[in-house]
Amino acid sequence: MKKSFAVFGLGRFGISIANALMSQGAQVLAIDSNPDVVKKISSQVTCAVSIDVCSSEAIKEVGLDNIDVVIVAMGQSLAASVMTIMTAKELGVPFVVAKADSDETAKIFLKVGADKVVFPEKDAGIHTARKLLYRNFIEYFEIDKNLGVAEIMVKPEWVGKTIKELDLRKNYKINVIAIKKENKIANEVSPDDTLKEDTKLIIVVSDESLKKLR
Questions:
Q1: What b-and-e string marks burial along 43-64, b requiring 16 or more CB atoms within 10 Å of the CB?
Q2: Based on the domain organization, do 183 and 99 belong to the same domain?
Q3: Which of 117, 59, 116 is nearest to 90 (CA)?
Q4: What does the alpha-carbon distance between residue 88 and residue 25 come to, in Å, rounded to a whole number?
Q5: pTM metric for this prediction
Q6: Residue 54: which domain range?
Q7: What does the alpha-carbon distance between residue 73 and residue 19 come to, in Å, rounded to a whole number?
Q8: Which of 118, 143, 159 is the last residue of a domain?
Q9: CA distance linking residue 80 with residue 75, whole number of Å
Q10: Which of 49, 71, 72, 103 has its Cα between 20 and 30 A from that of 110?
Q11: Domain end among 118, 133, 155
């Protein structure tokens, strides 16, 4: 059974989320107060409607009863975001994600019922900074406040050496969980694997340890 999502707020972030969910085979209900915006995305999602997002009655009428996840992407409209979060939880939506632009806003969203708060602009800035700081850095996914999974290129001085020789855990405080060669991931990592120039490593690393990779 396909998972169903409702995305409130069709700005850049909301549209991006809606399109990404659709590409993964999910059912997406896209909602915004601007009819023109709704009309533009209507052919790209399962259903798109325009309502007064500040009205709890209007929100209740769109049919959130069978929605698995509600995504509140109206970061600049505090009243509309709060109303949507509260109404979604009142209707029994299992999981509500809200976009925030400050820590203060995030605290409000969590207090009124949001299960998770995201900071797209902040996260994008951090991600870009990491890529600029670490030239061998390809991708990074945060799994905790100071811990993440990263994909990195093998450093030039590592080429021709084995994982055992480099002792990455001791010298860089990183754990290699997979090796990527020719876009194929091998999750069985041997300490005797010799690293090549085109090899990519999937690692678990703390923010502090990332500095050692510079």
A1: eebbebbbbebbeeebbeebeb
A2: no
A3: 59
A4: 23
A5: 0.67
A6: 4-118
A7: 14
A8: 118
A9: 9
A10: 49
A11: 118
Residues 136, 161: one domain?
Answer: yes
pLDDT-derived band at 186, boundaries 50, 70, 90 = confident
- The pLDDT, as a whole number, for residue 135 is 59
pLDDT at 189: 82
User: Across-strand partners of 24?
Assistant: none
Q: Spell out the alpha helix ranges (H) of 50-135.
A: 56-61, 78-90, 103-111, 120-133
- Cα–Cα separations (whole angstroms), residue 144 to 119, 141, 191: 14, 9, 27
φ, ψ at 115 (rounded to 5°) = -85, -30
d(CA 195, CA 126) in angstroms, rounded, equals: 29
Contact predicate 162/195, CB 8 Å = yes
Residue 54 to residue 86: CA distance in whole angstroms: 11
Strand duo 95-99 + 116-118: pairing: parallel
Rounded CA-CA distance 214/204 in Å is 16
